Amino acid sequence: MIRVEHMYKNYGPYPAVIDVSFEVLKGEIVGFLGPNGAGKTTTMRSITGYLPPTSGNITVSGFDTVKYSLDARRHIGYLPETVPLYLDMTVIDYLTFMGRIRGMNRKWVEERIPKVIDHVKLGDYRNTLVGKLSKGYRQRTGIAQAILHEPDVLIMDEPTIGIDPIQVVETRELISELGESHTLLISSHILPEVSTICPRVLVISDGRIVADDKPSNLSQRLSGNERIELGVSGTDPKTAISAIRKIKNIIDVRSDTRAEKLDQASKENYHSILVDTKSNNNSSEKIAKLIVDNGWGLRNLTPLPMTLEEIFLQLTQDK
Question: What is the fold of 221-312?
């Protein structure tokens, strides 16, 4: 659906994107991550045809975005970080206008608008002026215009920025639903959001792609250490922590303070402990043996992958 090949984009003498290549296949939901100024928005704008690349090739649904720009754009729905809305139009008037300038005939527009409004849950606001909508409902209006013409590809730049937590959750659910029928490329600086929605991530730093993989695969590839979650019963946590610290190659041992783990451990009468250890030294077996030899209960022993935040920092720092 999306293919970027050796793309460069310069602003005068300054390179913003350097030899970027990747492909997003039909039906994929891909997160696009990077620090501020890394080249995310420039790349996304080039894919939409808003900015031509300095060199390289970009195709969307088989159409070159420079040579066949209009054909490519018919297959793209774009939600920019700042949605260009007309505040003095009602939601229906705005969507009608957006449909007509995209070349949709009157019948198609009239058939699509009720479906789109229902999909993004704007039914109670269809006749409300866009300027009177909350930030969250303006964002929904932006999503509605992006899917109005039934594009194959959706490109979303920071889709939940600036909206309240409840609407963030609702917008994530809507994006996940859209992923069932569209190919999605989503830029976000909210890493938990990407890990929740996107099975695959691209990471860009200083204009170059530095990673392209599943978060779980990146975690295994990058981590020089291993984190283990333990559930221990039959002893107090201080005793267990002190004993585990004596095992060779253990880096750190501490009580697990995550709220959901504390609540579960309290209900089931055990202690949740996190252990950081060097990789590939059989620490799990050594910890399990220690617990059994002391006559304690081992409720669980689970290796934990690096979080997306940790992956992001490791990939983008000091590059």
Answer: Alpha-Beta Plaits (3.30.70)
